[in-house]
Amino acid sequence: MPPLTTLALTAGLALLGALAGAAAGRVIPLFSRHEPEPDDESGPPPPTCPHCGTEVPWPRWAPLPPRFLGNAGCQVCERRVRAPAVTPWLAALLVGILAFTSVDRSVTEIVAFSAFAIWGALLTVVDARVHRLPNRLVLTFYPVALALLGLATLTTPDTTDRLVSALVGMAGLAAFYWVLWFIYPAGMGWGDVKMAGLLGLFLGWGGLGSVVSGTFLAFLFSATFGLTLMALGRANRKTAIPFGPFMILGAFAVITAGDPLPLLLE
């Protein structure tokens, strides 16, 4: 990639990351923690204003609520959401993805994986805060992800096999997590199952070995974190730790640093 193109793309991604971070920061507080009673079948609450509790208008087709992407406040109390400061590190994340992946990826591929980074960062913070992977954020990203990777296939030569591998990875990883949930529902959240297909899609773009490596790292990171908390006396075997952030972290690690599996098998 020519230096001037790289510089322009770096600046563009930094700006995109900053704007996405600002928007994501306004969305994160809309989700509250949900700890249902055993006989509660109502499901988690919809996104609501953290000040007055009014449900936020969120079209089913929209990955994010249009009203809160700007600087508008709640339509009832008109108060604005004060968000976590995610803008700087989300901008840095997008630039980091460019630095690690620009060698063998086209511009359309970088755009697709940047969208994945934005989405993954948003879900990581939400799940860490409220132990939820909301359908509004997970399911609405499926068509976006498929469209972006489909566009990358159409505009980049010799990527048809990558798309096939990505689709196989999506189906395979979703099935794997569904089996884990079916065997032991208490140890695996249904939100993790729904999100697994998206991780498999982007990991599978790099090969099915990447899907295996990203999944292994997710469990490794989660176990390491849990054992560390237990060693520090801040958790026990019954402490609930959200698994979604580790799933996303494992995927990011393989996508940015590469799949370590071929090296281990040599």
UniProtKB/TrEMBL annotation:
* Transmembrane spans: 86-103, 110-131, 137-156, 163-184, 204-232, 239-258
**Coiled-coil region(s):** none
Q: Which is an annotated GO molecular function term of this record?
A: aspartic-type endopeptidase activity
A Gene Ontology term for the protein's cellular component = plasma membrane
Recorded hits in Gene3D superfamilies, A to Z, give: 1.20.120.1220
The question of whether Transmembrane helix is a record keyword is answered with yes
Ranges for domain Prepilin type IV endopeptidase peptidase: 115-227
* A GO BP annotation: signal peptide processing
Query: Which keywords are on file for this protein?
Result: Membrane, Transmembrane, Transmembrane helix
UniProt record similarity statement: Belongs to the peptidase A24 family.
Q: What is this protein called?
A: Prepilin peptidase
Q: Which organism is it from?
A: Halostreptopolyspora alba
